[in-house]
Each structure stands twice: as C-alpha cells, then as structure tokens.
From TrEMBL:
This is Phosphoribosylformylglycinamidine synthase subunit PurQ. The keyword Nucleus does not apply. Keywords: ATP-binding, Cytoplasm, Glutamine amidotransferase, Hydrolase, Ligase, Nucleotide-binding, Purine biosynthesis. One of its GO terms (molecular function) is glutaminase activity. One of its GO terms (biological process) is 'de novo' IMP biosynthetic process. PROSITE patterns: GATASE_TYPE_1 (PS51273). Pathway: Purine metabolism; IMP biosynthesis via de novo pathway; 5-amino-1-(5-phospho-D-ribosyl)imidazole from N(2)-formyl-N(1)-(5-phospho-D-ribosyl)glycinamide: step 1/2.
Length: 231
C-alpha cells in the first residue's frame, strides 16, 4: 500500500505523518509537493497539519486552491482514503470534501494538550481497529478547531453516522458543535479531524492512541484488495 503526504509551504506535521506511516504500519510513503498534478500512484492521501501558506486568511482557504487539491478531490471521488489532520481537516472543509467549517477556538487561544476522544463510529476505514465508544488519548494543537455547521448538516451527519470522534467526558476544548472532533464524508472514505493521531503512535510520545488509525487504513485496504488481513 502506498501513501502520499501532501506538503504545502507552512505544513509542519508532514514529517510526523511520514514517520507514523513508516513506524506504525511499515508501508511505502512519499512526500508530495503542493504543485503536484498526479496522485494516481497512491492508495491513501494524508493532508497534514500546520499553517499552510501561513494561514493568513481563514485556515485552509488558500491551500484549497493549490494544484494538488484537484487531485485530492479526484482521489476522494475514486474512493481512495483521504485523511485530513488539523490544518488538513480545515483544508478539506474549504475544498468542499467535508461539510462545515472550523472557527476560532471559543477561548480565542491556541490549545496544545492531550485530548480524550470517544470513538463514535468504528466502521470507517480509519477506525475499524477501535471499539465503538472507546476513549483514546490523542493530542490537539490548534487555534481554529471549533467545528461548526448548520442544523440541517448536523442532523445529516448524525443520521449518516458521519461523526467519527467526539471530545469525551465533557472535555470539549474549543466550543466545537456537538463536541465534534472528527467527521467523515457520506461515503466514509474521507475523514477530517482536529486531533493529531500521527503524534500518538508510541507511548514515548505520551500516547499510542492514534496508532490504530494507521493499522485501520491498512486493514481496510487489504480487505478491499482481498489480501489476508494480518499479512
Ligand atoms: N496544528 C495545526 O494544524 C494548526 C492548524 C491551524 N493553523 C490552527 O491553528 O488551527
């Protein structure tokens, strides 16, 4: 299985994502610069965190016009796995691949700490190795992680089981609507989340709560391609 980690000017979690793929699942992974116009070689696309183009406008609002984004949209339409983490989540909402928007944190401060998350949907390609309702610790690091959408969109997200993670145990750090920490598209092959699973793949980093997101993706890909699950 082959992963692409998209790199924008200002990305700062690209190396963490690359290392997480190597360390957690030992699969092939390339950095792909924002000017790239072909992602056909890849099975999964990671859109990492950071401050793309400085985030001088709304976070992700410039990045979504990068040449590579047309390819990310194409990959999503083809059913490939697309995971947007933090700034990556913001970029995917700006690109229209996921509904809603990320607003300034309600406390107006950049927040950087471990966050307990509830796995709400464990049926996605990104969460199949977790139990439903399981609480995992995955760190957050953002200034604009306050998820918002209109009532109709929220009702749709709930009805289609598109809420993947919620901030658990009354811990909502940023004012996010319905405690939402991560969502998927209707088809389930695109996930966006504010917490950083790539920073939680080894106890040495403070938590390995994010590691199974990577094993989940590999597991889903192998099932889709008829390979034995743990081979
Ligand atoms: N770690 C990140 O990706 C940060 C995303 C964005 N720049 C924010 O502060 O919300």
């Amino acid at each position: 299985m082959k992963f692409a980690v998209i790199v924008f000017p200002g990305s700062n979690c690209d190396i963490d994502c690359y290392k997480a793929v190597e360390e957690a699942i030992g699969q092939e992974v390339d950095y792909v610069w924002h000017t790239a116009t072909d992602l056909s070689a890849y099975d999964a696309i990671l859109v990492p965190g950071g401050f793309s183009y400085g985030d001088y406008l709304r976070c992700g609002a410039i990045a979504r016009f990068a040449p590579v984004m047309a390819e990310v949209v194409k990959a999503a339409e083809q059913g490939k796995y697309v995971l947007g983490i933090c700034n990556g989540f913001q970029i995917l909402t700006e690109a229209g691949l996921l509904p809603g928007a990320l607003l300034r944190n309600s406390g107006l401060k950049f927040l950087c700490h471990q966050a307990p998350l509830e796995v709400v949907n464990n049926e996605t390609a990104f969460t199949n190795q977790y139990a439903k309702g399981e609480i995992v610790n995955i760190p957050i690091a953002h200034g604009e992680g306050n998820y918002f959408c209109d009532e109709e969109t929220l009702a749709k997200l709930e009805a289609n089981n598109q809420i993947v993670f919620r901030y658990a145990q009354g811990s909502n750090p940023n004012g996010s609507l319905s405690d939402i920490a991560g969502i998927c598209n209707e088809r389930g092959n695109v996930v966006g989340m504010m917490p950083h699973p790539e920073r939680a793949i080894n106890q040495l980093l403070g938590s390995e709560g994010g590691k199974r997101m990577f094993t989940s993706i590999l597991n889903a890909w192998r099932e889709q391609h008829g390979a034995a699950v743990n081979s």
